[in-house]
Amino acid sequence: MTTRTSDSGPRRRALLAATALAAVGVGAGVGVAQPKAVAAPAARRVRLTLPAPTGPYPVGTVSHRLVDHGRPDPWVASRPSRELMVSVRYPARDVERYPRAAQLSPGEAAGFDRLNSFGGVPRGSVDWAATRTFAHQGAPPARARRGAARPVVLYSSGVGDPRSLGTTLTDELASRGYVVVCVDHTYDASAVEFPDGRIETSRLPEEYERAEREGTVVELLRKTCAVRVADLRFVLDQLPAIAPTPFAIGAFGQSAGGFAALQAMHDDRRIAAAANLDGVLAYVQEDQDPGPLSTVAADGVDRPVLLLGKDGNDHHTVPSWGALWEHSSGPRLDLTLLGSGHATYTDATSMLPRIAARLGLPKEMVTGAIGTVAPKRAVAVQRAYVPAFFDRELRHRDDAGLLDGPSARYPEVRFVG
């Protein structure tokens, strides 16, 4: 996700502009230097909560380590196989006996504290490991009605972000009957913890620094997206082992995760619909730059697409979105959440205002990341429109007619024609 801070100046936005990479010092969100601070005592650190999901089902979760023995790790040459961690969110039952899962394990929390996309938040000031999700670890899955299969949706976060930074929306979908597979992209995410306790941290700060020196930033952007798409397609291969057999599969993500979701749909016909939450679809460092385009933008797709942009981003203003719009033959929907920022479509919407209030951080740090839209309204919009899109395209039902045009219930949402 992209953040802005008062001392960073105009930020370049790119595929890599999804996180504050502390070692670099340039780029949109890439290299926002984190203020140095001695870790506060645990009792004095900010503790955070997330909004409870609103669907009819309680939520369960399990995590899996997946190993692609046919693919050496593209970021670490010494690793002969690509390893991923995924979390599966699903409708559950009898959850009272099962603890609520942490948003981040202690190892992941330590990595996120060192290298996170919340530029301007002093290190050691937030107890990232204390946040609990509303998903219950290991709870038994709810029985599908008459044994019917459930739709499965893949989720990919922004560059540098852990898979859990989209918890509010992924838990919401699970509470509404979806199985959601949240993917950590190893050596891209701030920190990934494996079952044996091994923690692998992001290699992107040094990769980006080298690419800037060598003039190969575009090549790095291409590689980053290609790795993510290969990860998602491998997870698709593993669905029979980690999730119930779906009757339909979707994908969505924020920033680079949205790019990867649409590109994966372009490359793999198993994905029936995809939603892109403010992810540019070109290998550029500004959303408004015209190219080079990804193949999903250059070719278009013949299946349903949702573009949900920050205020100012739509298919008229973002050339890669315009190319996708022009070249696609499938259903297309372009929505703008007025007053939103790039990070609005992550848990930053709930977290950053609380952190800033507790630490006395400038308002501009918050609005630079999540915009000026009221956080509760931003969460409500996402919970309404993203499930409505997948309901229509995967379940073939449109109970509320929410996607037909502007709604008085959500005046913040603009339909872009």
From TrEMBL:
**What InterPro entries has UniProt attached to this entry?**
AB_hydrolase_fold, TAT_signal
> What SUPFAM superfamilies does the annotation carry?
alpha/beta-Hydrolases
- Which keywords does the record carry? Hydrolase, Lipid degradation, Lipid metabolism
GO biological process, any: lipid catabolic process
Task: Please give the start and end residues of each transmembrane region.
Answer: none
Matching PROSITE patterns: TAT
Keyword Hydrolase listed? The answer is yes
* Gene Ontology molecular functions: 1-alkyl-2-acetylglycerophosphocholine esterase activity
Protein name per the record = Dienelactone hydrolase
